[in-house]
Design brief:
The chain is of the alpha+beta class. The protein contains two helices and three strands. Strands 1-2-3 form a three-stranded mixed β-sheet, with helices on one face. It is elongated, with a radius of gyration of 16 Å.
Length: about 80
């Protein structure tokens, strides 16, 4: 198995873990970019973001990992929406 095949296998395994473990996170996109891996998308909380990164670092150890995970804002608005 080549290095690219191994990375693809590890990425697929990461997707499975994110979907099936307690985190059940389906909003994270994972792409191989050159020799590294990019994670991006929106997660529900800071704790969820930390758990996604922990699992990704376990599964992708040794591969450069880049992330752009945004925590969804779930706070109530502080002012009314102005419609024109």
């Amino acid at each position: 198995m080549s290095g690219a095949d191994t990375a693809e296998y590890r990425i697929a395994h990461l997707r499975d873990r994110l979907a099936s473990e307690d985190i059940a996170e389906l909003g994270v996109r994972i792409e191989q970019r050159g020799a590294g891996v990019m994670l991006y998308g929106t997660v529900a909380s800071d704790a969820c973001r930390a758990e996604v990164l922990r699992i990704a670092e376990e599964e992708l150890a040794g591969l450069p990992l880049h992330e752009d995970l945004v925590v969804a804002g779930t706070d109530a608005p502080t002012h009314p929406e102005e419609l024109s």
